[in-house]
Amino acid sequence: MAHDIDVTPAFNASGLGVSEFDRLVRLVYEGIGEPVPWTRLLEFLLRPLGANYVSLILRPPAPDLPWRVVFAGEAQPVIAATYESFFYAMDPFVNLPADRMVMVDEVINEADWLKSAIYQEFLKPLNIRYYMGADLGGGDDAICRLRVSRPIGSTPFGERERAICTLLLAHLKCAVRLRSLQDVTEAERSVYAGTLERLSIGAVILDKKGRVLKTNHAADEILAAKNGLSIVNGSLHAAYGSEHRELQRLINHAIAGTTDSGPGVVAAMSITRTAGHGNLGVLVRSAPLAEWSESANRPAAVVVIRDSESRVQASQTMMKRLYGLTPAESTLTLKLLDGLTVDEAAEELSISRNTARCQLRAIFAKTGVTRQTELLRQLLSGVIPLG
């Protein structure tokens, strides 16, 4: 059974007041959302710790990945880069006891430490004399590593400085894990958003009052044309009165959280555009609501927009990898995916019809189909549009 750790001794030894400690904890959790996480926290810690550097190693150096470290202090990038490429492998101040602040002289004899290559060639040029740190999580799987240093000519770290860091370790460990979860969510969102963009599908997220919170690039292009659908006073607006009223009804229905045709899906409708342009297909659905989440500007509805005239995005590289198509064959295939006939594609590509038909036969052989309709169905139903 887990037991809460009594932090009273550390708090008493830290010399911090309640307001100072409260600010430090807030900086830990506010740091999750900073562009370079925990920058303000590390900069704030310099003074109470009497440090010339405070750093947080979020990812140690690896053969296939650069290290990720947040610095506060006068770090010299040229010297710091040598740590990643050379000195990390010989650093004795690693794999510390989990979740505990440790002074360097508790790990290695002081004389040996001061004579070591990492101290003489890396730390000393950075004006580092005294050193303490903690590995959060411990061992090779530590989720991050906190390091604090003082300059040459200063005094060693004491129990007060150790106590200040100790008070933050559990909070910092929790915050780093929360940041990792946020990164996973962002990566997942980016994958889905990228897929919609590749398919030229517009997505518009609305709040509880039907106001536009966010749009993707495909939606921006459709709405910027102001042909059938646009944004007016922060809300979606259909050009024709009857369609606008129906669109608003569907949006309000979605915001209310009811469904007609499946989980989260309210309905679909068609938006008329000017002559010569096909209609826009619109799907309106309720936005998923987390059980414990509620705010005034939370996403409440999602409007998905499909332009029947939009072109499938596909790359020649993808077609070469999947089917071995040559650049010329890939270019012809892209024209067919855009809806052109073979003769129209030949004219646009400035090649003869016979050349285009020879290329098409080669494409059939490589993709294993015998007709153009089969080719298009195979390409559109596969991963080509997602690449």
UniProtKB/TrEMBL annotation:
It comes from the Bacteria. Residues 322-379 form the HTH luxR-type domain. This is LuxR family transcriptional regulator. It comes from Aromatoleum diolicum.
